[in-house]
Design a protein that fits this description.
The chain is an alpha+beta fold. The protein contains two helices and five strands; from the N terminus they run E-E-H-E-H-E-E. Strands 2-1-5-3-4 form a five-stranded mixed sheet. The longest helix has 7 residues. The structure holds FE2/S2 (inorganic) cluster (FES).
């Protein structure tokens, strides 16, 4: 399974094996990982699954939808150019070694 590494705001890192097809939000919340809330259950309605990705890995992701782009304007911590909603990132084999940074807070 692809390995996804989560880097907390305070620097702690945790790597999870994530089944292909699952979202990064689902992987995080189902493992009780700190810092990703996923309040809407992955329906792209809450923005509490905000993460930023390594700039050099951004090209591995599909382009964001207009809905994701609009929601990222309402995150608790201001969006960055490499911000994404983790519920909109479906893990593929190409994401093995992918790194996401968890913001200081989601609400
Ligand atoms: S879980 Fe709500 S927008 Fe991602």
């Amino acid at each position: 399974m692809p390995e996804i590494t989560f880097v907390q705001f305070h620097g702690a890192r945790e790597t999870l094996d994530v089944a292909v097809g699952n979202t990064i939000m689902f992987a995080a919340t189902s493992h009780g990982l700190e810092g990703i809330v996923g309040e809407c259950g992955g329906n792209a309605m809450c923005a509490t699954c905000h993460v930023s990705v390594e700039p050099d890995q951004l090209h591995l992701l599909p382009a964001m939808t207009d809905d994701e782009d609009a929601l990222l304007d309402g995150t608790a911590i201001m969006r960055q150019p490499n911000s994404r909603l983790s519920c909109q990132i479906h893990v593929t084999p190409a994401l093995d070694g992918f790194v996401v940074h968890v913001p200081e807070r989601q609400i």
